[in-house]
Amino acid sequence: MGEREYIDLLELQARIKESVADAFPGRYWVKAEIASWSPKANGHCYLSLVQTRGGKSVAESRAMIWKWHLPQLTAYFEDTTGQKLQAGITVLVRVQVAFSELYGISLYIDDIDAAFTLGEQALERKRNIERLEKDGYMDMQKELALPDLPYRLAVITSKTAAGYQDFRNHLLDNPQGYAFRLDLFEALMQGEQAPVSIMEALEDIGQKDYDAVLILRGGGSELDLQCFDDFELAIAIATFPVPVITAIGHDKDVHIADMVAHASVKTPTALADLFLEAYQAQDAILDRLQGRIAAGLQRVVSREELRVKSADADIRNAIRRRVSAMEVLLQRSVGRITKGFLQKYNDVAKERDVVAHRLRFATLARVGEGVSALALMESRIKSTDPRTILSMGYVLVTGKDNKVLKTVGRVAVGDRIGVRFQDGSILAKVDEVFDERLDNNITQIA
Asked: Mind listing the pLDDT tens digit for each residue in 25-36?
């Protein structure tokens, strides 16, 4: 067997290096995702670039940024995007292809297009919004009803966030003294892990009973707040069974989390105002009800006052009519008695001439008897005259039905009664009722 021809490894690598240099003489713009980012103490930065399809890597390469390029590239990227260069970001970089006999293919990065990164993120955000609209997630939270007086509030934020302290102070130190229960569920509010952290907080909240969930964060750069455009976080908010209200960023920022939430405001202070205004609205309703109740009571009191006055007038008129009727009856009785007496007297006078002497004593006796009878009858009539009875210190008492009371059985404690005296009448209220079983020796009952 003859000796094989061969070349050593170094020569092979040298030929590959020469071929690579011939095949890639210039610089090329390459789109890739930063898989790893490793700055070194010597100032250089080593990283891996990858391309994925369907969640799997289909290409990968080593890359380097020399220390004389690194400060300028990172500063430019951070100033443009508001985010640091790090793993997980899709970038468009300018590379020079190089081959090393020891390390193989490497890509030397000397420039980066920060605007491309922003564009990729905007495109992904647009696709997420379209998917959420198509699947009906945008309106799920809007269909939930926020209680008229939301009291139990779960807050998702960072405990040290200035926005949280502003919200807490504005809500709890309100001048009206409205009371709220705030429970803090801490979560990361920026970065790659923020969506997962917020979803974990939502899961904890779902095991308890709350009227509303509040996600709040102060302002920040566009990429600082990019986590609130996360698709999975949006679904978690949209499907949460309690109204979720967001207060993220400044006036110009609208995030997908805001779109799927029950409601969104621009600042933590505005979020506090939302709840304070809900309580103020209920206060206004109570004030209106109080006014209506007071007016209704005043109408009832006025109506009852008129009814009492009318009843008093009816009692007075009834007594007056009763007295007048008795006076007429008395006058008729006196007339009939007088007329009868005169008739009888005339008859006796005619007979007197015939039997004057014989009947003298009989007539005188008969006249005496008639006078006595007349006096007795007159005395009885006068004694039954109400005015006479009233003048003797007695009174005429009428019950709440305006009828004369003849027994205590028709009177109850608290009843209003009318009392007629000789010189007027009074209205009284019954404090106590004594029946015939009361000890007759008790005379002081007032």
From this structure: 889 999 998 889
